[in-house]
Amino acid sequence: MSGGPGPDAIYRERLRAGRIEMQTCEHCQRVCFPPRTHCANCGAQALTWQAIAGTGTVYATTVIRERPDRGPDYNVALIDITEGARMMSRVDGIPPTKVRIGMAVRAQIKTADGEPLIVFVPA
């Protein structure tokens, strides 16, 4: 091990810099998410960071209903990234009940509690 920052720290550094990048396995060419030290597909350790298009499709979605201690309704969605990975996020910019499976979306970097994260908006 190099002793440097781990994959998650590198991912967040890049988001803070305004870059949406994911790891790609040099052996099998699979895009890896979440950030990791080994490819989940083939086990190789040769992972490189590459910019992604930031586009995708809603694979699944659900609405979390309003509760007094949690605030208004919001959605949780699984997004199939164009490059092949799947990530959990949310779709902003429309009511949570309007998010649909198969909807085209694009990524945006937002900050919550001082940490960068990726959310999606309709494409």
Structure in words:
This protein has about 120 residues and is mainly beta. It has one helix spanning about 5-15, and strands at about 20-25, 30, 45-50, 55-65, 75-80, 85-90, 105-110, 115-120. The chain is built from 1 helix and 8 strands, in the order H-E-E-E-E-E-E-E-E. The model has no long low-confidence stretch (mean pLDDT about 95). The chain has 2 domains: about 1-50, no CATH class; about 55-123, Beta Barrel (OB fold (Dihydrolipoamide Acetyltransferase, E2P)). Helix content is about 10%, strand content about 40%. It has a 5-stranded antiparallel beta sheet.
Give a summary of the structure in a few sentences.
This protein is mainly beta and 123 residues long. 8% of the residues lie in helices and 41% in strands. The chain has two domains: 1-51, no CATH class; 53-123, OB fold (Dihydrolipoamide Acetyltransferase, E2P), CATH 2.40.50.
Describe the secondary structure blueprint for this structure.
Elements: H1 7-16, E1 21-25, E2 31-32, E3 47-51, E4 55-64, E5 74-81, E6 86-89, E7 104-112, E8 115-122
Antiparallel strand pairs: 1-2, 1-3, 4-5, 4-7, 5-6, 7-8
